[in-house]
Automatic annotation (TrEMBL):
<protein>
    <submittedName>
        <fullName>DNA glycosylase</fullName>
    </submittedName>
</protein>
<feature type="domain" description="HhH-GPD">
    <location>
        <begin position="143"/>
        <end position="330"/>
    </location>
</feature>
<dbReference type="InterPro" id="IPR023170">
    <property type="entry name" value="HhH_base_excis_C"/>
</dbReference>
<dbReference type="InterPro" id="IPR003265">
    <property type="entry name" value="HhH-GPD_domain"/>
</dbReference>
<dbReference type="InterPro" id="IPR011257">
    <property type="entry name" value="DNA_glycosylase"/>
</dbReference>
<feature type="region of interest" description="Disordered">
    <location>
        <begin position="1"/>
        <end position="47"/>
    </location>
</feature>
<dbReference type="Pfam" id="PF00730">
    <property type="entry name" value="HhH-GPD"/>
</dbReference>
<feature type="region of interest" description="Disordered">
    <location>
        <begin position="374"/>
        <end position="406"/>
    </location>
</feature>
<dbReference type="GO" id="GO:0006285">
    <property type="term" value="P:base-excision repair, AP site formation"/>
</dbReference>
<dbReference type="GO" id="GO:0000702">
    <property type="term" value="F:oxidized base lesion DNA N-glycosylase activity"/>
</dbReference>
<feature type="compositionally biased region" description="Basic and acidic residues">
    <location>
        <begin position="1"/>
        <end position="12"/>
    </location>
</feature>
């Protein structure tokens, strides 16, 4: 039975590199620490019954205490068919359009190339799936949902301090996830409380771990040592991209965006992950329809992912995703909190100005931004906090900690 070791303090290095903590593939300008994603498809499930465990809601020490409820595993594809657009009659983007936008943004922000190897796990940055272990990637990305990069990384560090790290084998150098699985739910909750939404996330994380543990045990031959503590989802590496994404969607709290990120960064597969920045720029560029046709689903990030993943050439999915994030954070005209009266509007030269049609509510006000994020599925309390921080950041013309959730 493997042992755990206490986490050593790690030098965070240059956290202003490539979005998603993936190195320095964007050489021209340093990238601010990536703001992490909101989750699309929040589902509470648990394969393991937890008796008499109670945890507090996020509102403070005097918050109401609720019992942990047991739900069945979800089976969801979000109404999407891999490789098929939900808007088959909408013939954009074309490969030529994707090439042009990649060229223009690369000239502005630097050429992006996918790393040849997945970097080792960080103990200070939660990230968005850019680690070798599929299980590690999935849980890190779930932890990053509906909060800022700063908060999710603080929550991840809480897990490291509480449960230690794995010294060798699958998941080497990251959190001892089996210790997290076996721990009382309240201990997991307390470890990640600083990151927000700890009630839902602690339940989801333990449910994911239990499901993975159950799968591992079921695959073992009779008489195998069931006491050993290796938990792995690395068999997903052998699946096709579509099968891998569909498999990940069966886990609690995992939606298309998170599954796509893990496929892109951990599995190193071509998958056009759509976060808030990517979705906004896809709309500005006209890469998704403004209104669905008869019988078609409404346009949101999930359907934008399905549509663009079917149309963007595979070799451009990684660079476009990264460039859209960088441009969506830095451009004085394409940021979420900006408008014709914004401080940087007049002195900003947007390389895709001639291609975009910016639309939607006037950005720059807290109320408008809050409503926009809530329409994308963000909880009201989180949207209110993030909108307030975004407006404050915009007023000081600082991008260092833009808290737009993806």
């Amino acid at each position: 039975k493997k042992a755990t070791i206490k986490a050593e303090k790690e030098d965070p290095g240059d956290v202003n590199d490539l979005p998603h903590n993936l190195g320095t593939a964007l050489p021209d300008l340093p990238v601010k620490r990536k703001v992490e994603d909101d989750e699309d498809g929040e589902v509470k499930v648990s394969r393991r019954k937890i008796n008499k465990s109670k945890i507090k809601e996020e509102d403070g020490d005097g918050a109401e205490v609720k019992d942990v409820k047991v739900k069945t595993p979800k089976k969801a594809n979000y109404g999407l068919t891999p490789g098929i657009s939900p808007y088959p009659d909408y013939a954009r983007p074309t490969p030529e359009e994707c090439e042009e936008v990649t060229r223009l943004l690369s000239a502005k922000h630097g050429v992006v190339n996918a790393p040849k190897a997945v970097p080792p796990p960080s103990l200070t940055v939660a990230g968005c799936g850019e680690v070798p272990s599929v299980l590690d990637a999935l849980i890190r990305t779930r932890l990053s949902a509906n909060t800022t990069g700063k908060n999710s990384s603080a929550a991840f560090q809480g897990l490291v301090r509480k449960f230690g790290t794995i010294p060798n084998g699958v998941g080497k150098g990251s959190v001892d996830w089996d210790a997290v699985r076996r721990a009382p739910l309240k201990d997991v909750y307390k470890a990640i409380a600083c990151g927000g939404l700890a009630d839902r996330k602690s339940r989801d994380i333990q449910a994911i771990l239990q499901m993975a543990w159950d799968e591992n045990r079921a695959a073992e031959p009779d008489g195998a040592d069931v006491e050993h503590t290796v938990i792995s989802l690395d068999h997903i590496h052998a699946m096709t991209t579509d099968d891998a994404i569909n498999k990940m969607l069966t886990f609690p709290g995992i939606g298309p965006k998170t599954a796509s990120c893990v496929a892109l960064f951990c599995l190193q597969r071509p998958s056009f992950a759509v976060d808030t920045h990517v979705f906004r720029l896809c709309r500005y560029l006209g890469w998704v329809p403004t209104k669905p046709g008869p019988g078609q689903p409404r346009i949101d990030r999930n359907t934008a992912f399905a549509h663009c993943d079917a149309r963007v050439p595979d070799r451009l999915k990684y660079p476009l995703h990264q460039l859209f994030i960088k441009h969506g954070k830095e451009c004085g005209r394409c940021r979420a909190i900006t408008g014709t009266g914004s401080k940087d509007w007049d002195n900003t030269v947007c390389p895709i100005e001639h291609l975009v049609h910016r639309h939607g509510a006037r950005k720059g006000g807290k109320k408008e931004r809050k409503l926009e994020m809530m329409e994308e599925g963000m909880p009201e309390a989180t949207a209110d906090q993030v909108a307030e921080e975004e407006v404050a950041a915009a007023k000081t013309n600082s991008d260092s900690e833009l808290t737009e959730l993806e």
